[in-house]
Amino acid sequence: MKLKFDVFxxxxxxxxxxxxxxxxxxxxxxxxxxxxxxxxSADDLFGIWHFEGMAVKDTPEQRQYWAPSVIxxxxxxxxxxxFIEGKNFQFMHVLSADSPLGPFENPVRLYDRFSIDSHxxxxxxxxxxxxxENNTKPERIGTRVYVDRLLDPVTPAxxxxxxxxxxxxxxxxxxxxxxDNNWHTLEGAFWFCEGDxxxxxxxxxxxxxxxxxxxxxxxxxxxxxxxxIDFVKHTRDGAFDPVLIKNEWxxxxxxxxxxxxxxxxxxxxxxxxxxxxHLKEARTARVCKLHVxxxxxxxxxxxxxx
Length: 306
Prior knowledge:
Layout: E1 4-5, E2 16-20, E3 23-30, E4 36-42, E5 48-57, E6 62-73, E7 76-85, E8 88-97, E9 105-109, E10 116-123, E11 126-135, E12 142-152, E13 155-156, E14 161-164, E15 172-178, E16 181-194, E17 197-204, E18 213-220, E19 232-233, E20 244-245, E21 250-261, E22 264-273, E23 284-293, E24 296-300
Parallel strand pairs: 1-5, 12-16
Antiparallel strand pairs: 2-3, 3-4, 4-5, 6-7, 7-8, 8-9, 10-11, 11-12, 12-13, 12-14, 15-16, 16-17, 17-18, 18-19, 18-20, 21-22, 22-23, 23-24
């Protein structure tokens, strides 16, 4: 089901939902003439989302912002987002603001290497950052999901534990890396806990392929140091079994965030309507209900209802 917006013609790639008080905010990667990070607000998940403008804008020196996430810490708001800086490719940075609408300013670089798709979280053991980076050493090379401890909102500990790795052909992004090896992609991690279980959801594969999907891993544990948990990727007896994948009315289902809203879990993800794959940008924000119980996540996607 598509979210409802008060503007026409905009897209919402990489939607990250954030709840603060009685307001909901949605941060997306800005494209076209609105490069940077765009932000929307709503009073109700299924109400009208109002376009609030740019939370951060591209500059000639800092451009192509990708996949933001936001956390509130000690009264201040922090946005974790990757962007190109000078000749460097996508490196993860954190910016701060006094309002969830921004402007987010004073970027601090967290890693001096390709690093994307953040999700900053808090547990009883402190702050942690989920993100993706590349690994070209294993048999299935490509982009993988990592977690690091944050000493404070702008200082990573540098633990950088690899948590989720590619294990199947549906996670291949391209065969053009090397003749003897495909490039795989796991990215867009989102962590949450429910009861005795912790979950990490992620996007897998290539956004242009039919196998582009959202999957998850889980762990039954009360461990609060996220760098010490062994998450097990969900499969159906070893076979591909995604939570979300293309269906009768949408394709390109991927990069998402999760909210527990009025006692129910929902995934906010991007997808495109059929017939729009040829367009450079056609991803819009959508919502579906998630059922979360005993280490298992299932989804209920619908074209026009929840």
